[in-house]
Amino acid sequence: MRICTILGKGYEEIEAIGTLALLKRSGLEADLFGISGEKTSGKHDLPICGLLALDELQPENYDCLLLPGGPHYVLLEESEQVKQIILKFKELDKPIAAICAAPTILGHLGLLKGKRYTCFTSMNEDFGGTYVDQYTVTDGNLITGRSAAATIDFAFAIIEKLQGSAQKALIQKQIYY
Length: 177
Description:
By secondary structure, this protein is of the alpha/beta class. 35% of the residues lie in helices and 23% in strands. It has 6 helices and 11 strands.
C-alpha cells in the first residue's frame, strides 16, 4: 500500500516525519510531494530534499493521502492543485488523513459536514460536523488528529484503517514493549 504526503515550507516536522516513520515501520510505502519544488523546510527549519513534483501526483496510484499540519497548511489551502487532489481522493473514496491545522482544509472544502473529527483545538470552526476532543478520530475514510502530541496515535489510526487492528497491535508491540 502506498501513502502520498504533501509538504510545503513550514510543515510540522513531528507530524510528518513521525507519522511516516511509523507507517514505514508497518511496511507501507510513502512518497513525499513538494508544493513548491523538490526541497523545503519545516516549522523548525528541518530541511527535506528529494520531494516529488506535485504535478506527478496521481491519486489513483495511492491508497491514502496524508496531510501534516503546521504553518504550511495555509500554502496547501491556497493551492487549487492541492484542493483538487484532496477532492479526487474523496471522489475515489480513499482515506484522507489530516492532523493539527490540516483538518481545517478539509472543513473549508465541506468534507467534515456530518462527520466526527478533531483538529488543533483553537482552529476548530463550525465545519458542519461534530468536533471530538480526543487525539484521533476516524469517521469513514477521514482520519483526523488533534496536534503534534497526537502523532503516534494518528499514525496508528492510519495503520489500523489501511492494514487492520492486528497490524496496528503488532507495530504497537514493537515500539511500546
